[in-house]
Amino acid sequence: MLSKQHHHIRKVIGVINNAAAHPKDTTTPIYESWHRSVHQYGHNPEHMKAAMILPDCLVKQHREAFSEFIAITEYCLQTLHRQISAMGYVVMLADTNGIVVEALGTENQSKALLRAGLCQGAKWHEADNGTSSLGMVLATGTPILVHQNDHFDATHINLTCSAAPIFDSQGRLQAVLDISALRSDESKQSQHLVFQMVCHYAQLIENASFIHAHKKHWIIKLSETAEFLEVDPPYLIAVDENDRIVGSNQRFRQWAATHLPPAQQAVNGCTLSALTGFDLSVLLAKLNMLTSKRQTVDIGAHPLHLGVVPPVNQSATMPTPTPAALPPSLSKMCAPNSRLQHQLHKIAHLADTQVPVLLNGETGSGKEVLARAIHQASARKNKPFIAVNCAAIAESLIESELYGYAPNSFSGASGKGKTGLIQAADGGTLFLDEIGDMPLFLQSRLLRVLSEREVLPVGSTRAVKVDIRIISATHCDLQQRIAEGKFREDLYYRLNGARFHIPPLRERDDFDYVAARVLKQCAVQLRLPEKTLSAAALALLRTYPWPGNVRQLNSILEVACITTTGNRIEPHHLPDDIMRHIAPPETPTHNPAGRAKQQILSSKASLLDALATHQWNITGLARSIGISRMTLYRYSEKYGIQK
Q: Is residue 600 a contact partner of residue 613, using CB atoms and an 8 Å limit?
């Protein structure tokens, strides 16, 4: 026996015989393992044992039973081996019996490794050989670094071993990953990098095994940072088509144990909606609206970035039956066959949730109208809908307008104080229009309102709880505003629970429906008989670019309703700027066509003659005298000519 081994045996005996003597160079887990080795398993530190190696026939049986898992781990094991093999390390994978079923790095020093038990077929368990890295992980379920004299048996005090557990989705220990070497620097700190590597690769293998085990389920990926959500998501949850959580990885279970109340920590078996506030179908609807396919959710008041992996051979959009009828307020937003119908059905799923909605669209495209429709489609419809134009309130007033103020809190303040717009929306919906123009200093306060659901009036020390649904809108590119330092990125992700783009009027595929609906609303508001648009007038409106969108259309049709004496709006009832866009101002001409035009349009009789000559071919007549068809229609209307 070497003097080094003899010294180690005396040290272990001293520790075992004097429980109070805890050596400074021995960590508590190692100290506890020594005691288990003696008191639980009956080992004698004076009896040194050679490494336990199983016969080939038994090793083959264990490998065959573990073959599917070995295949899953193959790539990770080989990658890890390539990174550390040059430094003399061996990579080993053991089953829950402590039997090494795979070992990489044993080619060049096989005899020495075989004697040390760093090879395929070796068995490491506290019941067989006392304290070792593999044995301790099996006993405690936690990663461990067992370096040289940390081993119980003096046979192994030259070894340095780092090991980490691999769990299945139900929290059961599945395997152990180990990195060991025959010799190393005496300093235990020299192995800390190797220890971190074994923990990292154990996590990668665990995630790979998780995905394989749940390939028929929806896998929810979660991360504190959006950047690593796709690269290396720390947290995984598996959900079946009934919204039931059927598995989670160890890191998420550890996260839940420290971040969630005790009643919510056992996530396996509960529903996704109980954990996140919405079920799988709503989650998928939200993600399908986002180009990034990433979403931020609050779990126990802690924001996490979320992504979804669909079941094998299934797309990331859950198949759904024919969609139910839209709520009345939303069904009026577009024609039944419009492309917007698909988007409105997604909105309908979210209408009665707390998910923040962000509406993007040009000025006048109907963002507030849609926001009100969402409010009306929710259970909050009988509660306040408070619209705030963040660009219209003076910067010096916006804080007190939004948050209110306590009595006499500043010069000029009312002695009774004032309720802010956020508090006024309690129980209902707060619509923040032009959110991109909100001053930067107020964005942090709004972020607190969204996360804490409370508002602190100016000059007050007591926060007031509020129950509000947030819908925001902007015509800006908020990502660009973030890049310019004018908008907080964290606020953007809070507001962007679900994002919808409202197309400008010129791009709508249901323009005729929009025009008819706006015209009907104008008649109701003006208390006038309903009027219709003639085919010529409608054709004229279709070609206009509508820089002011639906708001501009409403103004034009409102004036047309008032000025039209009959029941039908014709082109000449429309504003001159629309007419000029279609038919540019005509300049005096001295050519024969110009003189013919002046003569034909000078009276009803001459126009009738010309129409008869051209067999009432409007296009042909207009072309022959150098005018547009719309101009010819206008003169026909002026003279009361109808075919």
A: no
